[in-house]
């Protein structure tokens, strides 16, 4: 324990001097304080003393001109804000917290620079410390005191122009560069003026304005054009300035502004030491408004025209307001200045004009610094809308016009006509003839009638419009119905029977033929839609014939009109009785007629059956059987139209050219024809087979004269006979079926068993032999032959023992020989 105590005492003795020294090093410097406004002359700063000058509460971004002259002895010139000054006041280390770009240690001589208050959220109080002592926190750097120093100070706020994107003192280490502005900060409109100014504070440096491509080449250490010509400021040892205007090819292109402290490009500083300088960039953007419009600047009265100034240069947002004056000839605000009327505000407006012609538009652009610039443009306003013609009059209004009396003046005016601008002329036409061109006219007439008045109005642009009105000139006299004839009007009628009505009236002006009479049969319904239900023209005229279809009470209103529409009316009632029922005579006549027709029909049917039986007897007497006679009668009825009252001879066909042939005669005729086809006729010429065919004449039996009947009688008989003709229908159908069955065409051998001449034999071709199918029951001795002329094929029967024959083609009638051997 004793050893530990001794060791503790020894450590305290060793550390005591060090702790005492540390406590003495943190002692506040105890600077003298003064406000900058109170310094009018130079101040003396003795050795071991510091002055803390209060610069006041400064707004971030404000720029101050600092001009300090120090003589006799160097001092530390340090800038602190209200927060960082506390470390200096407490004697603590401050080297990393004062404003480096504006502060100077071991300062001796003259110093002039522009200092921009650093950015902060709120304004701060700033201090300038003039240190002529060995501060406990200066780490042995800077001035450590010496002799008394004389210092003069001038701290003045500068007013920069609106477009000063950079104005401050800055420092650049050796062999490096500092970018001051780039990107959108230096995208400028063509025509923008750029003024660059630099003041050297320490060392020698360069200032260059570059395009983005030049800057990239500069950073890469390449060789070429590294700055925009005429914008460079090289080897700045005191101050320098240059002015440049942005050309069109660099409009809205990114530019870069740098401070160079290298030995490249050639001609500038060598970059061997650190530099400090003040750089100011001032811009003067163009205030050049540009007017643009739709539809090539053409519009019409009352139709909006879109105007805009969007093509105006404004990359720096230099334009604050746009004001539009739509018409240079109109002073709408009454200040005697014709181009400053605020008819529209903004970058886009819609112009409206109420008169035609060329209009001068004035656009005034006002910049952020209240600099103004004006531009004008001419647009055209057309009048394409026609005026509206309106006739006003003192006359009595009627449908589509006015009414006036005889010899009464009636005035007309076009003053109520309208136009989107103005009505220039009024032209009056009366009944198709030009009458006047004044704004008003007065008319009168001595006779009644209807006249047409046309007004045509036109504006200054030639647009016109017309309106037509009717003027009715009437008399005031009223027609009067003749009371004596009204008393004679019938008051009763029979349903469906016409009834005559006759009236008359007189008028003081109109003739009787000029009056119109309307008979209204339904006074409760306005059929003509004129608003009066009692003057409808169901019948017209002074003498009418009316048929009433409705029984009972029928109300009638008679109205007479003159040419002027004056009228007189009379209402009366007609009682209509129902029509009487018709008698039964007509029904009796119909029954009698039906009985007569039926009796006649039965008589005709009996007569026809009687004559038909006689016709059968006539035919059986000529050798026909009963069935053949009926068949012959059916055939006759098919081939000719047999009258209803035809006699038996006509029904039997004895009057027609058709011969009566029995079945026995037909059998004999068929047998004879077959024999002649094989052996030829008895009186036939040996060469008859080569001769053209001939036809035998036919004989006809004499025809008896039939009894004639009228067409009306025959038609009635036919109608009655149709009801009883079923028994004949079946016979007629059977007869027609037999006629439709035609025998097959069969060629006949024209010659047989005769030796033919050699010349004919040479032409005979052997026919193609067609072997028919053999039947067990029927032996077919016919052959199929092909005509050598028309190639028609047909069959013939070959008589036994005939080696050769001449055959006639049934189609083309040509003869040719055949050899059957």
Structural class: alpha+beta
Give the overall shape, derived from the CA principal axes.
Answer: elongated
- The overall pLDDT average reads 83
Under CATH, the topology of the largest domain is which?
A: Jelly Rolls
**Helical stretch tally:** 11
The CATH superfamily of the largest domain is known as GOLD domain
CATH architecture of the largest domain: Sandwich
Summarize the structure in words.
The chain is α+β, with helices and mostly antiparallel strands and 821 residues long. It has 7 domains: 25-157, GOLD domain (Jelly Rolls), CATH 2.60.120; 166-284, Jelly Rolls (Sandwich); 292-382, Immunoglobulins (Immunoglobulin-like, Sandwich), CATH 2.60.40.10; 392-474, Immunoglobulins (Immunoglobulin-like); 480-577, Sandwich (Immunoglobulin-like); 587-657 and 703-740, no CATH class; 758-819, no CATH class. The strands form 12 sheets. Strands 1, 2, 3, 4, 5, 6 and 7 form a 7-stranded mixed sheet that branches. Strands 25-26-32-31-28-29 form a 6-stranded mixed sheet, with no helix packed on it. Helix 5 packs across helix 6. The termini are far apart. Mean pLDDT is 83; it is low at 15-25, 684-717, 719-756 and 769-779.
